[in-house]
Amino acid sequence: MPASDKSAAPDPIIQLIVFRLGQEEYAIRIEQVKEVTLTPDIARMPKTPSFVKGIANLRGDIIAVIDLEERFQLREATEELFAQTYTMAIEAKDYTIGIVVREVPQPLSVPQSAIEQTPEFIQEANIHDKYIEGIARINDRIIVVLDMLKLLTPTEIMQLPTSAAS
Amino acid sequence: MKNRILIVDDSFYMRTMLKNMLTDAGYEVVGEAANGQQALEMAIETKPDLITLDVILPDNTGLDVLRGIRQEQPDVKVVMCSAVGQEVIVNEALESGASAYIVKPFSEEKVLEIVGNALQ
Amino acid sequence: MSNREQEYRELFMAEALEYYDAMSRHISELERNPADEEALRELFRLMHNLKSNARAMGYTSIGEAAHHMETVFGQLRDGEATFTGSMVPVLFGGIDTLGELIRAAGAQQEMPDVQRLLDNLDRLTRGEEPNLDDEEADDEEDVSRKLELSDLVYIQVRKLDHLMNLMGELIIDRDRILTLSREINTPALTAAAAHFSRIADELQYSIMDARLVGVGSLFSKFPRVVRDVATAEGKDVNLTLQGEDIQIDRNILQIITDALLHLVRNAIAHGLETAAEREAAGKPAQGQLTLSAQAERDDVLVQVQDDGRGINVESVRRKAVERGLVTRAAAAQLPDAAVRAFLLEPGFSMAKEVTEISGRGVGLDVVKLAIDSLGGQLRVDSVLGEGTTFTLVLPTSIAVKGALLFELDERSYALPLMHTDSVVSLLPGSFSVVGGVLLTRLQDENVPVVSLRELLHLSGDQALAPARKSTLQGRQDIIIVNYNNRRLGLIVDRFLRQQDIVVKAMSKPLDTIDLFGGVTLLGSGQVCLVLDVPALTRLFLAKRP
Fold first, then answer.
1. What CATH number corresponds to the domain at position A104?
2. pLDDT in tens, C93-103
3. Does residue A4 sit within a domain?
């Protein structure tokens, strides 16, 4: 392949949905987001990790709703989740799952090139880097782009032990 | 001592009917085979006194089975079961050592008469 | 109709439909490859068998049609003719006609006329051209006649399932609308909501009704199974069928098919003795096996009953101790019914020998799981030396279940009525503590009682803390659940009400938590967890102090 092709390769625009967790901005690819709604009534489900808020009825689908701030410990333990929150319904591999956020998530278009791979400083944060697709730098903003498919595997959500469950 | 009979027919319905008729008449049905291969195996295994043998079977013809059985067990009586219109096969079967034949659909009396005669 | 005639008729129908399916398959193969010898041989054989069987049954037109078809396929097989030209539509049409004839025989309806088909087949046999113009015109006539005659439609179960799911949604909306209409409280709205609710109810029952089939449609497959298994096992068995007309949801019947097969095979292989053993025990040589169904309130009871050797409770008791399922001391005190229930525990097997049909590990637990998945119950009764009866208590319909609603930590939960024994409200004085377990006396039986809250919030490998009477304040609302002959009391915050609920399966990834059989939506829009009694009971047994 001639070298000139590489420089001429188009820089695709990627559509993200940006939301706030703790003090930081996070994003997911728009195609993984099914819809955003006011958080419906959630039934707490015993025998699940505490960041699984419970299950909710989303237009007839019964989905699990999770709190990523709690999962990644981005909120002070004493601080409660706001009374009024939003839920993003995310398409995981073969099911839908809800993620609660404090503010209405916003769409954002960024060029593919703005997303940097394998950042090192993330190690300091509590997010294991295997969930991170990359870091988008837009002007002064630093947005962590999450790989939802990795984050939302049943093993991750249920924090199932690798050995046989009880 | 009850006479022991092996039924060979690929129709479950036919086998059931024959079995009921023969059992009711005091014979012991020692096995039911649904194809030629099974028939040959069960004939050796169960050593029946008499075999009712359908002329048309899924894997080979009743005639082949008849010849196979007679080779192994020359003493066993074989009654061929056929439908109308298979006189050619029936004649050939009688020449190959079959004792008698029954034409389907058969009546209970006819079956018992033919089987009884063959066993005498 | 005598039993035997009935049996012959069922055998004939089952085999004829099988033949018809195979004929349709083979003639399509022939269309792709007109010289396919295998297909020709099979078609000839199938026609031959159908002819013989139909004549024996007295179905003259099926016999005649099959005979004429057999003749043509015989010529094709022997290379005296080729599958081509005008012969093709006649033979295809012939197989269709056989299908209609067989179905008419099954429905005990008048047989369609086959003279035209016979004439055409005769022409083909003589090497003449069939009369096809007539055929087409008559086809149209056939179609209009069929429309007039048939009061039945065949429908795919998938479509009925879809209707049922939509119905479930509608019931949830009905409850929501009723709740709203009470809150808004406008006479016109209240009247409209009440009317809507009545229609929705009726629709629900009509859909459930459309899915019901006679238990006989499954039972009728058993004469053959019993015959085959009995032959393989060297047993003499007489099968009696009862209650074939009892109606049950088709999918429930589907789910219990394997369970029933398993029980019947077990009964023949392990329950019934050989003729010699029976005679030695002073019993008739022939073993009796009964498959019966009866309706009991909203449930259907299916029983598999044998008059065989019965279950030796003492050897089950011994084995349960060996397996560590129960201590020797506790085992000695267990009533027989509770001991027999061990047979249903995972991996517990009483089979002494490996047999061709039942194989090793005669897993009654598999049967139990199938019944549990339906929210049903499995019971074993047995008298040593006299026989064993397995009873399957099944719901008539899957989607709607009777449930008891209660409150815990300000959330509503539901418990299926199928597993609910009773509800009691008891003062602290009615309890005693034995070995760290809270007990109460109900109908002369000590029933363990546990706080549902504590049971649900145990984490991982934590065991329940020993119970203390001092923690009980005032009246305790307790639901007594029953699973596999074990009763367990669950302390809840408050009873709410009894209600029919539509259970939705738990969605992934939460479906790994077996404590919940699913969820239901209440009229208020609230999501309500449906507890799974078998899993709760198992959890209690594993976690008790």
1. 2.40.50.180
2. 899 899 999 98
3. no
Q: What does residue C242 show for φ and ψ, rounded to 5 degrees?
A: -135, 145
Question: Which SS3 state, helix, strand or coil, does residue C43 take?
Answer: helix
Query: Given pLDDT bands bounded at 50, 70 and 90, which one contains residue B1?
Result: low
- Rounded to whole angstroms, the Cα distance separating B47 from C161 reads 53
Reported as a single tens digit per residue, the pLDDT across C61-119 is 999 999 999 999 989 988 888 888 888 889 988 998 999 999 898 888 888 888 989 99
Chain C (226-245) residues lying within 8 Å, Cβ to Cβ, of chain B: 227, 231
Q: Is C514 on the interface with A (CB under 8 A)?
A: no
Q: Please give the model's pTM, rounded to 2 decimal places.
A: 0.50
C5, HSE (Cβ side, Cα atoms, 13 Å): 4
The verdict on a CB contact (< 8 Å) between B13 and C53 is: yes
> Is A60 contained in some domain?
yes
Query: For C48, which of B16, B56, B105 is closest by C-beta distance?
Result: B56
Candidate from A56, A157, A166 with C-beta closest to C460 = A166
pLDDT band at residue C336 under the 50/70/90 scheme: confident
**Does the CB of B58 have a partner CB in chain C at under 8 Å?**
yes
Q: Which two tokens stand for residue A76?
A: 């002070």
Task: Give the Å distances, CA to CA, from B15 to A93, B2, C67, C124, C218.
Answer: 54, 19, 20, 33, 22
The confidence score (pLDDT) of residue C328 equals 84
Contact A60 C169 (CB under 8 A): yes
**Tokens matching residue C400:** 């709607």
Residues C534-543 have pLDDT tens digits of: 889 988 988 8
> Residue C365 in contact with residue C342, Cβ under 8 Å?
no
**pLDDT for residue C291:** 96
Query: Does a structural domain hold residue A133?
Result: yes
Reported confidence tier of residue C340, pLDDT bands at 50, 70, 90 = confident
Per-residue pLDDT reduced to its tens digit, B60-113: 778 888 988 888 888 899 998 887 666 777 788 888 888 888 887 778 888 898
pLDDT tens by residue, C234-247: 899 999 999 988 88
Please indicate whether, in this complex, the C-beta atoms of A154 and C508 are within 8 angstroms of each other.
yes
Tokens for C63, please give them. 């016999």
- Write out chain C residues lying below 8 Å of B106, CB-based: 56
pLDDT digits (tens, 9 = 90+) for C382-392: 998 999 999 99
Partners of residue C508 in chain A, C-beta under 8 Å: 94-95, 154
Domains of chain B: 4-119 (3.40.50.2300)
Q: How far apart are CA C477 and CA C497, in angstroms?
A: 13
Cα distances (Å, whole numbers) of residue C283 to B26, C240, C274, C306, C381: 21, 18, 11, 13, 20
Residue type, C495: F
DSSP C245: T
Q: Which domains, from first to last, does chain C contain? A: 3-149 (1.20.120.160), 157-211 (1.10.287.560), 229-311+350-395 (3.30.565.10), 400-543 (2.40.50.180)
Instruction: Give residue B104's Cα distance to chain centre.
Output: 12
Count how many domains chain A has: 1
Query: CB contact, 8 Å: C281 with chain A?
Result: no
Please answer yes or no on whether C519 and A47 come within 8 Å at the CB atom. Answer: no
Do B and C have ≥3 inter-chain CB pairs under 8 A? yes
Nearest by CB to C509, from A41, A157, A165: name it.
A157
Physical contact, A and B (3 or more Cβ pairs within 8 A): no
Q: Does residue A6 lie in a domain region?
A: no
C-alpha distance from B104 to closest chain C C-alpha (Å) = 6
* Structural domain for A143, as ranges: 13-158
Given a contact cutoff of 8 angstroms between Cβ atoms, the answer to whether A65 and A86 are in contact is: no
**In this structure, are residues B32 and B26 in contact, taking their beta carbons and an 8 Å threshold?**
no
Dist. CA A26–CA A73, nearest whole Å: 14
Verify whether the Cβ–Cβ distance A43 to C411 is below 8 Å.
yes
